Model the fold of this input.
Amino acid sequence: MSIEIQSVAKRFGNFVALDNVDLKVETGELLALLGPSGCGKTTLLRIIAGLETPDAGQIRFHGEDATGTHVRERQVGFVFQHYALFRHMTVFENVAFGLRVRPRQTRPPEAEIRRRVHELLELVQLDWLADRYPAQLSGGQRQRIALARALAVEPKVLLLDEPFGALDTKVRKELRRWLKRLHNEVHVTSVFVTHDQEEALEVADRVVVMNKGKIEQVGTPEQVYDTPATPFVYQFLGDVNLFHSRVHGGFAEVGEHAGAEGVVAYVRPHDIELLREPAALTLPATLDHIRAIGPVVRLELRLDNGDPVEAELSREAYADKRYLAGERLHIRPRTAQNFVEDYTI
Amino acid sequence: MRFRQASVLPGFGLAFGYTVFYLGLVVLLPLSALIIKTSSLTFDRFWEVVTAERVMAAYQLTFGASFVAALINLFAGLLVAWVLTRYRFPGKRLVDALVDLPFALPTAVAGIALTTLYAPNGLIGEWLAPLGVQVAFKPLGVVVALTFIGLPFVVRTVQPVLQELEAELEEAAACLGASRWQTFGKVILPTVLPALMTGFTLAFARAIGEYGSVIFIAGNIPLESEIVPLLIIGKLEQYDYAGATAIASVMLLISFGLIFVINLIQWWHGRRHGMRK
Amino acid sequence: MHSLHSSKRSGATDEPAWVRWLLTVAALVFLAFFLLLPLAAVFTEALRKGWDLYWEALKEPEALSAIKLTLIITAIAVPLNLVFGVAASWAIAKFDFKGKSLLITLIDLPFSVSPVVAGLIYVLVFGAQGWLGPWLAEHDIKIIFAVPGMVLATVFVTFPFVARELIPLMEAQGTDEEQAALVLGASGWQTFWKVTLPNIKWGLLYGVILSNARAMGEFGAVSVVSGHIRGLTNTVPLHVEILYNEYNFVAAFACASILALLALVTLAVKTWVEWRSERQMAAEQAVVHDH
Done:
């Protein structure tokens, strides 16, 4: 089931949550909506689900217009940020809910419901918790039950709102991998919302980066990370050094737009090359601090005009060179992406 | 474990001592007088008093009317709480404040006002009389007065629960294909049920003991529209202290039972569904 | 504002408009019949024969003495329970000890006891045939069928109001601020006056308003211990009963209208206090979010 979003707009009062958004979700893919809070990603997810109605535009499920279809009839699975488990029902009853509320003609017989629920609980590896109440589960368990409940109605699309937002770091990592595996098994078209770039890059087939109600870029994790389409995407996905042509001269002219006025070069810390001797297109800098965090070593440098620059090396490369704090170095970008300066930022 | 956990704050001894002393003096000591007085009766005498025909009729009326009134309040209270938390309409704040009127209006005032309205020549009674319905001076009048008295209990216990109910729960039900009516019956109602039951029990308990608002509208006809508290006063006026005490002790026992029930509801609910965050 | 829309809910979980209208109208009709009409009836009956007779009824010496007695009883009973409420909530909310929930249940007890039973128990202790009856008679002290008994009965029925408002409030506030004050060198009393009291003032006011309303309006319990001596042991509610039973409806409703006005003032102050504390809480949360 593919989902097409065609020029969808939504405002809340004066706040523009979505500004003419177009997007196509391919059948069977796992798509991440990534962006800072207030960028409209959750609103878009809720509009796909039918929990909000767009002010303008269309939602098409497999080519068919679903904009006016009520959430009940859309057959979407939705996993809420805080799970929204029914606390007066056991885990079993929670998962069975979607089957039990069907009209009599389409409701499966009791034995079938039992079989299906246990199958799903096995899928999320929590069959042994069937008789517990949500209050007796850990956060990670609740999250998986919420997923099983959403899958019980055999949804055409699965929508997840910040699925790992309320969990602690360790459980989060585990569940991420688990979700990826689960998606490979069930293969239902899935969209999840996150503000965590690492999560989006690690789990999704494709990532949609959003900002201020607009889509900035759509692409595979590699595409959005390595070739960001806009300055926003560059800055949102990882650390970046900015070099302005006005200030840093020819240094900023490594990529396209070379020679143009008012160009900014975006360089990731691991793309900063450090030299002990000056060369063509280098800038002198002083090494201030050295921090070894895990497998990488971070170097904080300062240009002569006071601008800070961050560089990143592997431990081996650092061990090789043995830079010292206070040392004079010359920096050069290996690759950079240039954008014409936006004076509003 | 020690009686009290250590704390750096001062004043526990004084505050706790005064609390227990005052509670004992004003509440517990006089209440124990009732129990001691009752136990001075022989059981046969006690049984004779509390099972007399007139007393039994009064119990029947008091409990029956209290139950019906609490039941009316269960539905009306849920309706009012629902409308006040879910919908917006002009004057809502005012209506919300008005719900507490039965708490604030002296019972005697409520009693004479309701009697005037529901008497056969009253504003509402006039309309009901041609239909053959008489409210004032009949058991129905007792129900009306007790409904008035009990209304805020259900509204005020249910309202906060409805307010805190996460919108996500209802959205989850809708996503899973539940109709609005199914969502109400299977998700919302079970969540507010403990509050509803607590409100019902509170309204019922209050109605059983109610005196001021009822005696004007009830007509107080023995064996027909005479409530238990009125019987106690009647016995007192005839200086039949033993009789009054016996009947009162039964009322007190029932009050204790109802407090127990409320605590049980809350304990049961808290144990099973208290969500750990 | 004037459209009958549900607040902060998405269209997906809203009822159809006709259901919303139907439920709202049903609720308002019920409230109009059960709450608004009785309230309106009090005032229309009181003014049925015009303002002159209304004033006349209120200027009766017996009415005036009933008002005076009601004020005296309230002025004694409410402060007594205020002090108790503060002490009880300090002990219960700020400390942990065994049997706390039993103590709370016992404090709530007077709410569940019938007012008539409340009056009766004092008759059993202080009445002519009660425990202390003979001793009191010997020393010529009158409690039952006199003002002291009425004060006691009023204290009983308004017993839990202040404590019940303060306990949850003080529990929610915890003891951090008090501990900070003590660390800064404040004495116990200073901590209470300068830290605790300002934090609980709205809850305290709320509790006082409620017990005040109940104290002035109490009927059953006071009726049992008063003896109904005209001009001496009649409070306003008791006076209303006597006038009503004498078919003096205008005077009965005139006195009742004072009590109804009191109820309206109570509701107004209560709503105002709720509004104040809501705003204060919202402001505090806004500050937290800003940082």
